[in-house]
Structure formats: C-alpha cells, structure tokens
C-alpha cells in the first residue's frame, strides 16, 4: 500500500475516528486505526465494538491496500509532522512494516494486518430522520448532563430518542432528575423509540461541527443506530429494553409558579456551593414569598444567605434542592428568565418554557425546616 | 474589624498571597490568609514558613483589626462574588465570626485570631540589587527547567544568584545539565552569592507582571532573600551551603562547532520523542557531517530518521543525548539559530551565544555505535 495525504486532511480524519478507539481493550487490534485503501477511496476506521466511526479522507492512492496502525502512535506522529500544507506518505509492505514520511523525517513502525480489524456492522437504511448538525449537538448538550454515570441501571446511562410523526423527543434521567428536549422535524417520519448510549452521544457531539447548514441522517436499525454526516459515519449499539414511562412522571399541576432571572439565580446557587465539599449533601433551601425568594445554605464551613426578586403566582413555599441539579439545568438554559412550577416540598419541581421545548424535572430533598 | 473593598482589588491581593499558602501543613493557622488592618493600610499575608508573601490591598478601614480566614474558602467566596465593580464588606467580631457581604449575598464563616499567624522574618536592607520585572521573569524562565526535582541533593533544587559588580549570573544544574544566564545590571552592587529555592522562583515568576517598566528590588539577608515589587513583598529562606564550582565545569575548547536552525532542530527532536514512553531511556543520536546532521532515534515502538542542513566547523562527530534535555534548552532559546560546541562523544556539549548571555551545558549519553 502507498498513499499520500495533505497533513491537515489526514490529521482531521484521525481525530474523528480516534473517538472510537478504546483506551483499554483485550483485543490489541482494536487499539489500531484501520487505513483501508483497497477500493478507490481512503477510509479510516476506529471501533471499540460498541461504537464504531468511519471517515473518508482525501488523498492519493499510489498502491491499493490496507493496514492497521497503533492509534496512539499514528496520531502522535501525524500531529507532530511539519505544517498542515506538507504532504505525508504512508507506505507498507507485505510484512506490515510501515513507513511514514513527511519532509525531512521518516518514521518506521510495525503495522498489523488490516483484515484482522472488525468491520462496522451493516445497518438497513429504512427508518431514519434528518436534522441539522447544530440541532443534534444542542439536543445532546441540553440533556446529556442528567444521564446516570453509575452503571447499575444500564437504561439510565443512555438517552431516549423518540420519533413521533414530525417531532423528536430526547429524554435522559438518573433517578433524581429528568431532562426533556422536544423539536419539530422538517418532515414526517415513521414512529420509533430507541435508547442511545450516553458515551456515543458524548463522542458524536465532539465530532459534529455544529453547523446549522449541514445535515445529519440518523438511521434506526434493530440493535444499532447510525449517524451519517459530512464524510463520516458513526455506528453504535443501542441499549436494549423498554425505557421508563416518561409521560407518567409529567404533570402540569402546580401550586406555586415563579419566574426569576436565570443568571442571578444560577450565580447565587454557584456561590453557595463553595460551602459544600464533594459527597457533602447539603441542600439549598428556597424560601419563596410574595415578590422575593430567599436562598440559604448551611454547612460545616459556614452559611450563605441571599435574596432575589421574583414574580410569583400561587402559594408561598419553602423547598430544598441538591444545588448541583439546579446548577446543571440552569447552566444549559439559554433564556434570560426561567419559570419554575412547584406543588409542595415533596413533589418534583419543573423548569420549563411555555412551549415545553424543554422540561427539566428535579426532585426536592428533605431538610430540617426547624433548623432553617 | 470592618473593611470594604472593590472586589477586583481584593481578589487580586488574594491571588498573590495564595501562592505562599501551603496545601498541606501541620499548623492549621498557616492554611489561612491573614488580613491585617490594625494600622492605616490593609495587608494580606500568606506564609508557609519557607516562603512568605505580603501585599497591600486598597480598601476602606471602617474599624481597625485583624483576622485570619481559611485561604481556600476566602478565595473561592471572593472569586464567586458579583462583578469586579461590586463592593465587598468584611466584618468580624471578637469571637472571630466573620461576615462577607456583596450585593444580595451574605456569607458567614468562622475566622481565627490574627495574632496567632506567623509574621514574615525581618530582613536588613543593606545588600541589594535592582532589575526590571521583565528581566527577572525571563531569567527564571530560562533557567528553572534544569533544577533537580529530586530532593536528594538540596542544592540542586535551587538556583545560584551571583552578583559580581554590575553583573548578575543565575545558574541551575541537576547533575546531567546546567543552565546559565548572565545579565548586566544598571549599577554596581556589593558582591554576593546565594542559593534561592526553586519553589520560590516558580511562585514569584507567577506573580511578576513581566512589565519592563516596573522594577524589583532584591535584598540579600544572611538566611533570607526578599523581593519587593509593586505593593508586594516576597520573603524566602535561602538554601544553605556552598554551591557547585560552576566555572570549573565550563570550557571554551571544542573540536566540532555547528550552527543550526533552532525551530527545525527542536521540531525534529520533539517528533522523535513520540517513540519514547516515560522512563524509556532512548538517546537521540546526532551524526554530524560536512553540511548536514542526521538524527536518529530507535525504540521498541519504531524508528525515526531525519536530516537537517547545518553549518559545521571542525571534525565530524557522532554523539547521543537524552532528547528531553535538548528539547528543554531549545524551547526557551529565542534565537533563530543556535550554536553547539562539542569536543567528543563523552564530553559535555555547550549551547551558547557569542556573548555568553546564555550557556546550556548538556552531558551526552552512551550509545551502541554498532547498532546505529
């Protein structure tokens, strides 16, 4: 095999597929990036058997072939080669000895047989939807924080993607809170419901350019999901099983509704969090009165008190939350003002906009009212 | 005690003295920052008994007094308070209960008796020198990398500051290499020789603005050194003992002299380092011939070969180095071309400019010439 590339194009391709190369694996071949130039195009592939990424790279095929190269070494060598305009030549012989040449430097490393590499699974392209890269990236950013990092309930480590005619709903929850984003699609598609691993979404969101003009095709297979955009395809296993009954957790009843400046609210809670060390479960207590809300946090390090002006409808209320959950939700809301709907100190609080394009549900925590 | 500050001024002062607050200590009072407003100025102090920093902060003294506050908590609270223009009020009572107020937020934390805090040692201001903040910062940057990180020889963890009339020489060495920087001072001063701990120099270099117009006074006491600049003083213990005989290690003899483009040389060595993992002691071998130098590195991961054009005087030479030592020295040299002076494969290599404002000595390493 003998190929030439512009360094910048090669590096870009490597950076994309690197997201699917496992850092630890029992199958050494998976620590490699596959360079496949056995046809008329050059494709790079990374695959950890859960998540696989393949991307086309522009280059010249002087001699067809394929080779698997240690991903870490290959990416570091390419990164350190001369400037972006330089040409890189990759050449390998029948014993997989590989030479990488650029300007005045020549690297010789040992490659592996490309045929040993695991191909990406085939996915039928029947069921699909189409949306912009920007929208998908935003959907992920605005929900991913409330998946569970704990593996004990596999379902909670993924996100529900639910297509219903021309609407897509994305849901994540971890047992203490839930994030929901709903968008309208440009077309009507076949209804579908899948659970996508959080890791896949995290990696995809790093590769997406976030361009509003560029589209992503998402194909739904029986056990896999396939994302296709630019010159790249990302294939991931789905999480099997029936997702939680989301609609049963929602409610539009409330006894107290407040509207508050988002930045001011977020700043206050972040400030109060200084008094909490990790694993320290101190709630922030909101005391909602006529036109103001008092915030209080009490820990072994000290006390913080603050007061914010609000618009209130309904009853006065004193309610406590894990400050981290409020911070996570408020950070990703772009609105200037947010509205909170609450029933009582034991029922979930909903942060949502009027059109319900986003709904964040947060369970309150108990606190000793007498000590406040 | 009751004081008011502009947030930005207070935060700036905290960030300066924080550099001297130990992260671990057996004396809890040293984990604090002392606020001393017992006179007409407000001073903040951090002190780990080796290194002490004191800085003046502008503010209003509504009630004189002093208090020691947990450094981490105090700095985090101040950092998270509203914008830089906001006024911060710090008030403490006779039981050291302290209230920090800014806009709509009030923090209450427990302080400690300021009198328990250790004052900075007094240093007589007889012997001193004066140079610009920029120059001191550069001197440190260009030598600090070759102190020893290993504590087994205390002397090697510091730098020699040697005043000789109107010249200042700064030297660091770790047993494998040595860095020397020499500058001319604007005046003539009393001769002196001290060893300053590397930690002190690292911290000072973070506080110095690097301004060419602003000066630093350096005072030399019997056991301490004092740096005075802006509104800040930094006091550090000196390392006791006689420094190594630097001049005996220097030599102006050479058999081979080469001049090479610095960036090209550095890039090549950095690239070759990809093939080395930590603790892997593979040398980079330079094969110097008439008008070119071949570089070669061989490891279990692969081989790199490169070739660079050079200007050579004297004999051909094959010599091996720890690539890290070459990289460290070349990275901080600002010249476009560097000159290397070598005697043979066993004698030190000198990288220096004609005026010897900098001299970097690097010991070569053995290699198996037959395997090259």
TrEMBL record, chains A, B:
Annotated ranges, domain DNA polymerase III beta sliding clamp C-terminal: 250-365
Q: Write out the transmembrane intervals.
A: none
One Pfam family in the UniProt entry: DNA_pol3_beta_2
CDD domains xrefs: beta_clamp
Q: Name one GO molecular function term.
A: DNA-directed DNA polymerase activity
Where would you find this protein in the cell? Answer: Cytoplasm
Q: From which domain of life does this come?
A: Bacteria
Q: Where is the DNA polymerase III beta sliding clamp central domain?
A: 131-243
Domain (DNA polymerase III beta sliding clamp N-terminal) spans: 1-120
Q: Which UniProt keywords apply?
A: Cytoplasm, DNA replication, DNA-binding, DNA-directed DNA polymerase, Nucleotidyltransferase, Transferase
Matching PANTHER family, A to Z? BETA SLIDING CLAMP, DNA POLYMERASE III SUBUNIT BETA
Q: What binding partners and quaternary form does the record give? A: Forms a ring-shaped head-to-tail homodimer around DNA.
Similarity field: Belongs to the beta sliding clamp family.
- Function, as annotated: Confers DNA tethering and processivity to DNA polymerases and other proteins. Acts as a clamp, forming a ring around DNA (a reaction catalyzed by the clamp-loading complex) which diffuses in an ATP-independent manner freely and bidirectionally along dsDNA. Initially characterized for its ability to contact the catalytic subunit of DNA polymerase III (Pol III), a complex, multichain enzyme responsible for most of the replicative synthesis in bacteria; Pol III exhibits 3'-5' exonuclease proofreading activity.
Q: What is this protein called?
A: Beta sliding clamp
UniProt source species: Alitiscatomonas aceti
Species lineage, top-down? Bacteria, Bacillati, Bacillota, Clostridia, Lachnospirales
UniProt lists the gene as: dnaN
